[in-house]
Specification:
Layout lengths: L2 E5 L11 H19 L3 E8 L4 H9 L4 H18 L6 E4 L3 H16 L3 E11 L4 E2 L5 E2 L2 E2 L8 E10 L5 H10 L4 E2 L1 H12 L5 E2 L1 E3 L8 E2 L2 E6 L1 H6 L1 H4 L7 H7 L2 E6 L3 H15 L6 E5 L2 E3 L2 E2 L10 H8 L1 H10 L7 E2 L2 H30 L14 H12 L3 H22 L1 H7 L1 H22 L4 H13 L11
Parallel strand pairs: 1-2, 1-14, 2-3, 9-15, 14-15, 16-18
Antiparallel strand pairs: 4-5, 4-8, 6-7, 8-10, 11-13, 12-13, 16-17
Length: 476
């Protein structure tokens, strides 16, 4: 049995959860559940990033302390994860005392390595990203990711991290481990970024400009740069530095992140780990964005899709289904409310839901007792490999397409072999066929476990009780 550590990025609590957060949480959960099905131990980390200028500004605007604001929004994300049925083992908050201590210890180790120094610099800074921007990352003086925000020119004395020192080590990492960043085009992208030359990055802010952050060890005039603090959460979540036995059990980590996090996750964080004398991450999976009607979701455009409202209307498993099957794991994907409804009716109501009703109506009517629980190791080997390979490569949509091909095949078999007629002509043969159909449906339920865990449980329960369930996906 292996021990596997999986983490999402920690969402920034300057707003309530959006569909992008749901996408990353569900992908990580699906991956973790699949690893568990293989028999491995899994530690799944999610949480919230709670320091920084945007949090302080939002809190003050609402007449709250930053901590009270962070507590409120962390609660939203915890409830959000629960409603999506995320099987996380921990919910890490960057305001947790243990994390604050870990971030300060991490700073000290980078300082001992000679990688932290104080200097005055003038930088081009995006408040939205909380990152310094190069000329190539600007379009007519605006950040590509936050075009509505004004770029700031900042000149101040801060602490800097010697990012440039790790250029060659990072390039060697990308060259020797071609699967370190997935998909391949994101590996090429980060390789190009690092190869063009690295600038040391600021890792502190003066307290008079930003009081809401982790205090810099030995210098009360500064607090830590929000990205430095947040990235350390990946090690603080598994006990570092206090419980090294737990840390060594789980580390290194498989990270999931959006494409706007590529630089931080695949380069900055890896350099920080090298500086602190810790092993680098195991793998970084980068997913695309969700757009709507060809545009980035925004309140001003009126195209924002609220994931909580989707859950209320369609149920958590239906939302998980949409995100895992109909969104590309790697590229940007477009989604509209109309498309969501069409997928729900076509593939869940008329597809899976109808199949379960057909099979279980036959079983309840003609079988004298439930079928025996099918053997599993963990799945029939002839089915397992293609499914597993797709998820190992983070191709969740391909794995779900494969499941739905089996749903379609079983539906077609019922139409072709007409068990409802056969059982009237030859009871034993008819019952034998119905048992085969119920057994295959049970296996389909097993395969749905990582994707649609509640549906998986309902299907297995109804088969073992030999009772047709209420409509799994009622027509809305």
């Amino acid at each position: 049995m292996s021990a596997r550590y999986i983490t999402t990025t920690l969402p920034y609590v300057n707003d309530k959860p959006h569909l992008g957060h749901a996408f990353e949480f569900v992908e990580a959960d699906c991956y973790a559940r699949t690893v568990r099905l293989k028999g491995d131990e899994v530690f799944l980390n999610i949480g919230t990033d709670e320091h920084g200028a945007k949090i302080e500004k939002k809190a003050l605007a609402e007449g709250k302390t930053p901590q009270a604001y962070a507590d409120e929004f962390a609660g939203y994300f915890q409830d959000f994860a629960k409603k999506l049925n995320i099987s996380n083992d921990v919910f890490t908050r960057t305001t947790d005392p243990h994390h604050v201590t870990a971030a300060q210890e991490f700073w000290k180790r980078c300082e001992v390595a000679g990688d932290i120094y104080k200097a005055e610099h003038e930088i081009t800074y995006c408040v939205g990203c909380e990152l310094e921007k190069t000329d190539s990352e600007l379009n007519h003086g605006h950040c590509l990711l936050h075009p509505n925000l004004e770029i700031e020119i900042r000149k101040e004395e801060n602490y800097y991290f010697r990012f440039s020192k790790y250029q060659n080590a990072l390039l060697e990492l990308y060259s020797t481990q071609p699967a370190f960043v997935v998909p391949e085009e994101r590996l090429h992208e980060i390789h190009t970024f690092v190869a063009t030359g690295l600038k040391d990055f600021s890792m502190s802010r003066r307290r008079e400009k930003l009081s809401w952050g982790v205090p810099v060890p030995g210098d009360d005039a500064h607090v830590m740069y929000v990205w430095f603090d947040a990235l350390v959460s990946y090690v603080s979540a598994i006990g570092w530095p206090d419980n090294m036995a737990v840390f060594k059990k789980w580390w290194p980590v498989t990270q999931l992140a959006g494409k706007d996090n590529l630089r931080q996750q695949a380069a900055m964080w890896q350099a920080m780990l090298m500086s602190a004398g810790l092993p680098m991450s195991k793998q970084v999976f980068i997913h695309g964005f969700i757009t709507s009607n060809g545009h980035k979701m925004s309140k001003s455009l009126g195209n924002v899709i609220d994931p909580m409202k989707l859950i209320e209307k369609y149920g958590a498993d239906a939302v998980r289904y949409i995100l895992l099957r109909h969104m590309s794991p790697f590229e940007d994907s477009d989604l509209t409310l109309d498309a969501i409804h069409e997928h729900y009716i076509a593939h869940l109501t008329n597809g899976l839901g109808n199949l379960v009703a057909r099979v279980m109506k036959l079983a309840e009517t003609y079988l004298q007792e439930p079928i025996a629980k099918p053997e599993v190791t963990p799945f029939p080997q002839e089915y397992w490999q293609e499914y597993q390979n797709a998820i190992d490569a983070f191709k969740f949509n391909q794995a779900m397409d494969w499941i739905w091909s089996r749903i379609q095949a079983l539906d077609e078999r019922i139409t072709r072999e007409e068990p409802f007629k056969l059982v009237k002509e030859d009871v034993e043969k008819g019952r034998a066929l119905i048992k085969e159909l119920a057994t295959e449906l049970y296996q389909i339920g097993r395969f749905l476990n990582p994707f649609m865990p509640q549906t998986n449980e309902i299907i297995k329960k109804t088969i073992l009780e030999n009772k047709k369930p209420e409509n799994l996906f009622p027509r809305l």
